[in-house]
Design brief:
The complex is a heterodimer. By secondary structure, chain A is mainly α. Chain A has helices at 5-11, 14-19, 28-36, 53-59, 66-108, 111-126, 129-144, 148-178, 180-195, 198-208, 214-238, 242-250, 255-288, 297-306, 310-340. In chain A, helix 10 packs across helix 11 (214-238). The longest helix of chain A is centred in the first third of the chain and has 43 residues, at 66-108. In chain B, the strands form 3 sheets. In chain B, strands 6-7-8-3-9-10 form a 6-stranded mixed beta sheet, with helices on both faces. A 4-stranded antiparallel beta sheet of chain B has the order 2-1-4-5, with helices on both faces. Chain B has a 4-stranded mixed beta sheet with strand order 11-14-13-12. In chain B, a hairpin with a 2-residue loop joins strand 9 (257-262) and strand 10 (265-270). Chain B is built from 17 helices and 14 strands. Classes of the chains: A mainly alpha, B alpha/beta. At the A-B interface, helix 12 and helix 13 of A face helix 5, strand 6 and helix 7 of B.
Chain lengths: 345, 369
């Protein structure tokens, strides 16, 4: 006897209800109720349950239980998994290769080649010896406490993922800035990607790919980190001075000339701010991705948690902070350099 | 604006001033142009054509009447000034000439061809080669150097840097910015930035220059300099200039043909002298009331035409040119009311000017009724 029996009786649906009265697996609550033996006890008005799926199921067997929803979702996903794999696998395979090759390149090359190359890149984008010195100090510190190998793995993953984010994110942002409909469509997706707890990204990916494939964590990082660069590219192009755009039109620029000659250069400070954020977010995600076999400093943090090795976890954690600061300073310095050439804005 | 500047400049301009009887050919012609902003401009257009005014249209239809039945002829080699207060539709009007704004109805004839029927490619050619524009807020590209900005039109046409550099430098020198070519716009003052804007328009070598409140953002002394620069360049190049302003002094100083807009309609257009002497609307009367008429009016607008035969030049206190302003004549007469002058054009007498006529012309005339 359940609370909503009366409702189905009144609607004349009793026959339909009982038709579905096969017995699915019993829930724990049902079992408990059975052991108590007084299922017919009337429920006081105070304790009336919300007419949820489970409560209605008690009264009418034809109505599914809530656990059927999660189960249905799972079996549905498993049903389309093969088709999905068939499509996504080849598309994302280059990501696996990129990650594998980059990891190989950065960890197998001797440190006395990798580190100078990193310093040279730092100099190229920041043009500041101070920043180069700072990066040298930070990397030197990590290498000195024997975290060089892990730090290089983490950096390799971030380089690849941030590169892919920019490669995909900037064109998406540009397309959004030129098309209001697309913007209305993409913004909710971006909102969702940004608010979804980072762990949740991993769940469907684990079903899709094997845990040994680098693209598993690569995709998770890219999905999480691509949001800011898309948003800020869109915003940056929309914020370009209307007067300047009008001047470009008035002098007969084509759309292409306007995009590459005016809009992108003027949106560059915003785009670079997006790239900076994207790099920071991929660094945050690379730690979580160590749960699904992403190598690097995150693995050590995870070991610290799993085995309660406080020291290991803390040192690796500080290593991540050091990397974050170094990456942030370098990208900020290049941002400042771009800003300086357009100080009027 | 200082008094002396205006006086000297009105004189400098006169060489290029067309004669009343021999107007230059029409270059661009605006015919029955309407622009209505709103969701359904076509329906609103019918109401407007049936006689609905701007406030009623906004009230009952929620549409804004931008321009209403505009007819203006822009003549080759003249400065056509479109004047009106903010909201009168003047900036909207100038943007119709190169179709930055699409009209609701009407025609814009360029060399006899309606540009409203043109496709994107043709329109782009028009903007690249025939019409250049100068903007109120300069609208320079902040990430490009002054030279690159000046050569914007040329670069847009696909001309390489080595080829356009000389041309851009020439025009930068001409507007007084020689040596600034490698700077960025933000390193220049407002007046200098607008000089770059003018150099950019000139370097495109277009025959029509659209100037949208080009000097309004500049402070008064710089503005006078820029007006003088424009008149000087105009005396040399004889471009067809369409100039937008809300400043009557500026309009009177620059205009060969003055169009006064109010609430999207033309209230009066014609030669500035004529508008000043015979305003046909209380609105314009208010406008011209504060003007120093002695400086704007010329002797030819006030004189009695024809020279009485048989009289020697003895009666005249002297000869004045037909384009001298009244201020200079009063100064010459030292305030004496009984004198009269012979008005000369190209060395020949064309009229007589009594000092009493001058005094009458200095008092604003009221419209009857």
């Amino acid at each position: 006897m359940a609370t909503y029996d009366g409702l189905f009786d009144a609607l004349g649906l009793r026959a339909w209800c009982d038709k579905g009265a096969d017995s699915g697996p019993m829930s724990m609550a049902d079992l408990l109720a059975k052991t108590k033996g007084d299922g017919a006890a009337t429920v006081s008005a105070w304790d009336t349950p919300f007419p949820s799926l489970d409560a209605l199921h008690d009264a009418c067997m034809a109505i599914p239980q809530s656990r059927d929803l999660t189960q249905g979702l799972e079996s549905g996903f498993l049903g389309i998994r093969d088709a999905l794999r068939w499509v996504i696998d080849p598309i994302t395979q280059p990501l696996s290769w990129m990650l594998e090759d980059m990891l190989w390149l950065m960890t197998q090359s001797p440190w006395w080649i990798v580190m100078p190359v990193l310093f040279a890149i730092t100099w190229l984008v920041s043009r500041s010896w101070k920043i180069v010195g700072f990066v040298a100090l930070m990397l030197g510190l990590l290498a000195f406490v024997d975290h060089y190998h892990e730090a290089m793995q983490t950096l390799a993953i971030i380089f690849v993922c941030a590169f892919v984010c920019v490669l995909l994110g900037v064109p998406i942002g540009i397309a959004m800035s030129r098309n209001d409909k697309l913007q209305r469509f993409v913004i909710p997706i971006l909102d969702m990607l940004q608010t979804l707890p980072p762990f949740v990204y991993l769940i469907p990916l684990i079903f899709l790919f094997s845990v040994t494939e680098p693209k598993l964590y690569g995709i998770a990082i890219i999905l999480y980190a691509i949001v800011p660069v898309v948003r800020l590219t869109d915003l940056g192009i929309r914020l370009v001075d209307k007067d300047v755009i009008e001047a470009a039109d008035a002098f007969g620029m084509t759309n292409r000339q306007k995009l590459f000659g005016v809009q992108i250069p003027l949106a560059l400070p915003n785009i670079m701010a997006g790239v900076n954020q994207t790099i920071m977010m991929s660094l945050a995600m690379v730690v979580i991705a160590s749960l699904v076999s992403a190598p690097g400093l995150g693995v050590l943090v995870l070991r610290g948690i799993r085995n309660l090795e406080l020291g290991v976890g803390l040192v690796a954690g500080f290593g991540i902070v050091v990397l974050a600061i170094a990456l942030d300073r370098v990208t900020k310095a290049s941002l400042a350099r771009i800003d300086a050439s357009q100080a009027s804005r | 604006m200082s008094n002396n500047d205006t006086a000297t400049m009105t004189e400098a301009r006169d060489e290029s001033l067309p004669e009343d009887d021999a107007r230059r050919p029409v270059k661009v012609s605006i015919r029955n142009l309407y622009k209505i902003f709103g969701e359904d401009p076509e329906r609103a257009l019918e109401k407007v054509k049936a006689g609905m005014g701007k406030p009623e249209l906004l009230e009952s239809e929620n549409h804004v009447l931008g321009l209403s039945d505009i007819n203006v002829d822009i003549r080759d080699g003249e400065i056509t000034v479109i004047m009106g207060l903010s909201g009168s539709g003047k900036s909207t009007l100038i943007r119709h000439l190169n179709r930055l704004i699409e009209p609701t109805a009407g025609e814009i004839l360029f060399k006899g061809d309606d540009i409203l029927g043109w496709g994107q490619g043709q329109l782009r050619e028009l903007r690249r080669k025939n019409m250049s524009m100068v903007f109120q807020k300069f609208a320079l590209l902040p990430h490009r150097t002054v030279t690159e900005n000046a050569a914007m039109a040329l670069a847009t046409r696909g001309i390489s840097r080595s080829e356009y550099e000389d041309e851009a430098t020439k025009w930068l020198d001409r507007v007084g910015l020689g040596g600034y070519g490698d700077q960025y716009p933000h390193q220049l003052s407002g007046g200098m930035q607008q000089r770059v804007g003018i150099a950019r328009a000139l370097a495109s070598n277009s025959d029509i220059m659209l100037m949208d409140e080009a000097f309004s953002a500049l402070d008064p002394l710089i503005r006078t300099d820029m007006q003088d620069l424009l008149l000087e360049l105009q005396g040399e190049l004889h471009k067809t200039v369409v100039f937008i302003t809300h400043d009557l002094d500026e309009a009177l100083k620059l205009a060969d043909h003055l169009v006064i807009l109010k609430d999207g309609s033309v209230v009066q257009q014609g030669e500035p002298q004529h508008i000043l002497l015979k305003p046909n609307d209380p609105y314009i009367e208010d406008f011209v009331a504060d003007i120093n008429r002695a400086r704007v009016l010329r002797t030819r607008s006030v004189m009695d035409k024809g020279v009485p035969k048989g009289e020697g030049s003895g009666d005249y206190a002297g000869d004045v040119d037909q384009n001298d302003n009244l201020e200079s004549v009063i100064a010459r007469a030292e305030g004496a009311m009984d004198k009269r002058y012979r008005v000369m054009k190209d060395g020949k007498p064309v009229g007589t000017l009594k000092m009493t006529e001058i005094m009458k012309a200095l008092v604003p005339r009221k419209v009857e009724g």
